[in-house]
Amino acid sequence: MTAFFALATSLLWGLADFGGGLLTRRTPALTVVVVSQAIAAVVLGVIVVATGGWSEAGSQLWFAVAAGLVGPVALLCFYKALALGPMGVVSPLGTVGVAVPVGVGLFLGERPGLVQIAGIAVAVLGVVLAGGPQLRGASVQRQAILLTLVAAFGFGTVFALIAEASTTVTGLFLGLFVQRVVNVLAGGLALYVSVRRGASALPDGGIPVRALPAFAFVGLADVAANGTYVIAAHHGPVTVAAVLASLYPVVTALAARSFLRERLLAVQAAGAGLALVGTVLLAAG
Distance (Å, rounded) from C-alpha 279 to C-alpha 243? Predict the structure, then answer.
């Protein structure tokens, strides 16, 4: 069950990243974050009311609040790093954040078997290669490296925090709702400051109504990914769940290949294959 839900997490996050990347080609990244998360917050709010999730309120929601604060900061750092580039270095480096939940799992006493350790190593290497690392001719600014590392460990921290935000299904809905509300508030504040500094919040002509389903998909896929990750982490070793959930760059690369006809580099294809081998080893272990 851990492998199934963790792989579902990587699929959902990979598709959400792909959709978000497409939207940011026309709309400012901050606006994409705020609009997509606002739609997700509304849907989650309805679910919380319908399921009586408010009864699960407790001190554990502070983990959701913390995740909601860390998430937008990590995302903005990642987008800024991608803008500084080169993406072939930034994208694979962003996967090192998996060290946070894996480290938490080890600290709490989890001890993967030899097969799982081999699977973790192979899967992480596969994810890095699937990002298409630019091994030669890459001039990387120190700021880009620093921002990428901040983003990576921010994403890893969200992994660890959201897993502690609930222990029941209804509590999970409430925790995700709180996280999304904080996301919108933090992202909205950042967007306000950005506009005050002269940046544009909307593309020319505004956001067309036909684009709203795409925003909804990005927000809801991200929410669903958080939910499936929590389930995976609660039903098995966090070390395994975190690594399998971190395979989302492979999904994003394959989606770009399928829908945009982007050509995969040989190193990316090899990385996808290694990630699959690592997945099999983790599941077998």
Answer: 9
Phi/psi class of residue 62: alpha, beta or left (left: φ > 0; alpha: ψ in -120 to 50)? Answer: alpha
Here the tokens at position 249 are 């760059």
Q: What is the pLDDT along the chain (285 residues), one digit of tens a residue?
A: 788 998 899 899 888 878 887 887 788 888 888 999 999 999 999 999 998 888 888 888 999 999 999 988 887 787 677 666 555 555 656 666 767 777 777 777 777 777 777 777 777 777 667 656 555 544 446 777 788 788 888 888 888 888 888 778 888 899 999 999 999 999 899 899 989 988 888 887 788 888 899 999 999 998 999 899 889 888 878 877 887 887 777 787 778 777 877 666 677 677 767 766 776 676 555
Contact 250, 271 (CB under 8 A): yes
d(CA 49, CA 116): 40
- The C-alpha atoms of residue 131 and residue 82 are separated, in whole angstroms, by 13
Q: Whole-model pTM?
A: 0.78
Rounded to an integer, what distance in angstroms lies between the CA atom of residue 163 and that of residue 186?
21
Structure tokens at 146: 């620093």
